[in-house]
Amino acid sequence: MAPRSSAHVVHRRAAVWPSLISVMDRYLGSQLTPPFLFGVGAFSSIILAIGSLFELVRLVTDAGLSVWVALQIFLLQIPGFMVYSFPMSVLLATMLSFSRLSADGELTALRSCGVSVVRLLIPVVLLSFLVSMLTFAFNEAIVPAANWQARSLLRVSLNQEAPQFKDRDIIYQQYGDIVTEDNRTVQGLVRSFYARRFNGQQMEDVTVIDFSQGRVQQILVAESAVWLPQENVWQFRLGTTYLVAADGNYRSILRFEQQNLQLPRSPLDLAQETRGTEEMNISELSRYIALVQQTGNTKEVTRLEVRLQQKYALPFICMVFALIGSPLGMRPQRASTAVGFGLSVLIIFGYYLLLFISGALGQVGFLPTVAAAWLPNAVCTGIGLFLLSRVT
Predict the structure, then answer these.
(1) Domain coverage including residue 319
(2) What span, in angstroms and rounded, lies between the C-alpha atoms of 50 and 326?
(3) What is the spatial distance between Cα 313 and Cα 283, in angstroms, rounded to a whole number?
(4) Strand order, beta sheet including 168-179
(5) Is residue 259 domain-resident?
(6) How far apart are CA 182 and CA 338, in angstroms?
(7) What SS3 state is found at 166?
(8) Closest CA to 296 of 391, 176, 128
(9) Tell me: the pLDDT tens digits for 223-259?
């Protein structure tokens, strides 16, 4: 027997994929796509009008913002609002599509041929999973950079003098191992760094307190301090070092014009980071959480960890809404586009209300951060499974 050509093998392999996707799957996909695209356009327009357009028009008329700049900011804000429309559009698409199929008797015909409700949901779940991945990609690769650029452009256009760094009261507390007087090693505050002002290049009016032996060892006060990246040290200028004895008295006072110390770069990173959580992707937010953890600000760390978990959880609400919208659309009564649109708004409002409440409970420590972020998804999944059980 002659060996098959490579072109013939490739053709056979390519022909397998259409066979894996049945006619019913392709038909359901074609029914879901138009209302989904309609929902993206409609919901995005509404959210943009409420969340951005009215404020930009006010800035153009009252604050003298250029129309061209306002248009640029508006375009930069579109991706951030689109990701909110994706879950709503999935919900609307599943409700309207299955409602039409039910009203036209197509669902009855399919089920009479032995097609179960679970089988009908397979293409819906796959499509909603793709939308979830699209939402995740938007949130990671596009939205943070676009939000940051929009805020920076607005600040520059309005001649706002707020610097892109924290310009005063830089407080950094370093935690680590402390050797006590009885030679035990415990975790505690090692060093406290405070700068009254920061001009973007150097810290001014700096105080550093050393607690590395379980008590105040020394106090350094300097007029300024700069980070030297080549030497990986802080250079303090025009200052005084106070060495503290065990009884709390000064045992020596040393004045200096310039002194280099190997301290963490973290105070500089903390001062230079002014972006909000919506302007950072998961990797950037994780690094910032690690930085804030070193300061000992547990309340802020908890808030940031909740937001980090929400960045993972939010995209998957698309799949959850598909699970809710499908059984709602399978009900015998026919839902118009207006009714489906309104019901989608109510459901999404309930979800974000639950998201706000659970997030607040997570930030105050009533719920673990992971539970606070994923609880709305879990509750909505339970609702979807309950609705699905009523139509199976």
Answers:
(1) 15-160+314-391
(2) 29
(3) 15
(4) 168-179, 185-198, 202-210, 218-228, 233-244, 250-261
(5) yes
(6) 75
(7) coil
(8) 176
(9) 999 888 888 888 999 988 888 887 777 788 888 888 8
